[in-house]
Design brief:
about 250 residues; Elongation Factor Tu (Ef-tu), domain 3; Double Stranded RNA Binding Domain; 2 domains; seven-stranded antiparallel sheet; 12 strands; Transl_B-barrel_sf; Ribosomal_uL3_bac/org-type; structural constituent of ribosome; ribosomal protein; ribonucleoprotein
Amino acid sequence: MSLWDEWGVKHMVTVCQLDRLHVVQSMTLQKNGYEALQLGLGYRSIHRLTRPEIGSYIKAGVGPKHHKCEFRVSSDCLLPPGLELTVRHFVPGQWVFVSGWSKGRGYTGVMKRWGFSGGGSDFHGHKKSHRSAGSVGQRGPGKVWVGKKMAGHKGPDPRCVNAKVFRIESTRNLIFLKGALPGYKGSVVKISDARGKTALKNNHIRLPFPTFVPVPGVEYPVTIQEPPPQRDPFLYPEQPLYQPND
């Protein structure tokens, strides 16, 4: 969908919902050998769960979840089971990693699957070979090497993209991310903190640690959006782009 900021600049965003996201279990170094948080999302009928899964949800004090996922964290970020995580865990303007599975495209040719340029429109001496793969190897080896890019099934494949938080809405637990995300509409994606060079872009943002905890008696705004630039992007620059003598 499309959103506009205060200057009238159009932003293409993808809407994600944090549907009943709770901490199911905390993995500790003494008990499990590593430190992580197991989060549960959504709702699933209790008749489709095993008894060990039902027992883990009862122990955590949460309802049956449709999806579970682990996030590796440090010891000072371990949260108690049963705690609900909301969109206020994220801050507008923050960069995050979004992991998911791309769409399945079925059987495709080399031009769509691998981006081959194909044959030209004036391909003299050939017919019906404009989108063909061409040669698949040399005469010397006398074989086709393993991993040769050829036509075949495209997707679904695991993908991880960088995305910027544009807006959050706490009433329906909606998070608006700039750009496109992998997967179909309604699919589940994993949103995690950015790492590496992307994490350096968040140095000027004060992020909640380990997560957002509301203070009793304090009212918070329902919708928070990324602050717009101070200068109107549609104004002409003060310095001319070219000189009259150019």
